[in-house]
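This part of the workshop introduces the protein records we will be handling. A record pairs a protein's sequence with a compact description of its fold. Backbone structure tokens are a discrete shorthand for how the chain folds in space. The question running through the whole workshop is how a given chain folds. The record below serves as our worked example for the rest of this section.
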Amino acid sequence: MAFGGFDSGGDQKPMAEINMVPLIDVMLVLLVIFIITAPLLTHSVKIDLPKASSNPNITKPEHVQIGIRQDGRLFWNGEQAEKADLQKRMSQAATLDPQPEIHIRADRLVHYENVAQVMSMAGKAGLKRIGFVTDPSGGD
């Protein structure tokens, strides 16, 4: 705490002023930092893009439902399929343009190994968009 005055009187009172010099120093340092960094943040390349009027061609890819039951049975869009048949269908689906999305629907108690095998088969076939279907209600 700062006490004012060098006079020899016993009348010592605390200073009731705030020292503003450190605050001003900090403000000036921040100002210099912002002045230096602001031009770096707005750096961009100006290009004159061509104008064209057309509607975007939005084609939604179809999706394929792959079901996995607890006993290991596999389903392709609701139709039961063997692993070899599933591999052939995945290879055919990978050649389509746009590639279909793969939605994996697995029973709650399916071993992770079965799900990993199906995902591996899809990856080897060249399918890149794989998702999991869950029950949003929570079920607990």
User: Anything to note?
Assistant: The first helix runs from residue 21 to 41. The helical segments are 21-41, 83-94, 112-125.
